[in-house]
Amino acid sequence: MYVILVYDVGEKRVGKMLKLCRLYLNWIQNSVFEGEITEVKLEELKIEALKRMDPDKDSLIIFKSRQEKWLYKEIIGKELSSIGNFL
């Protein structure tokens, strides 16, 4: 499946969440990630994210789609991290 993940966590936890999310998805902008991921890996990511979050103050939002082709992405301004095809 293809996901877009957005998090909003306290300043002290930002670095830990960034490192965690980079293990699973492509970083595209501050606190925003996207990419293909399996259901199992997504569940693993959510479990690990909960360990780093304060559920009373932090949030994690995941948008799911079957494939990237079902989404239209328009970038205005500078793209912080382009995602290309790797061979």
Question: What does it look like?
Answer:
The chain is α+β, with helices and mostly antiparallel strands. It has a single domain (2-68), classed as 2-Layer Sandwich (Alpha-Beta Plaits), CATH 3.30.70.240. Helices cover 29% and strands 26% of the residues. The two termini are 21 Å apart. The model has no long low-confidence stretch (mean pLDDT 86).
Task: Write a brief structural summary.
The protein is of the alpha+beta class and 87 residues long.
Could you give the order of strands across the largest sheet? 2-3-1-4
Total count of strands = 4
Shape: globular
Q: The CATH topology is what? A: Alpha-Beta Plaits
Can you identify the CATH class?
Alpha Beta
Radius of gyration: 13 Å
Task: Average the pLDDT over all residues and give the rounded result.
Answer: 86
Look at the helices and sheets and give the structural class. Answer: alpha+beta
Number of helices: 2
Number of domains: 1
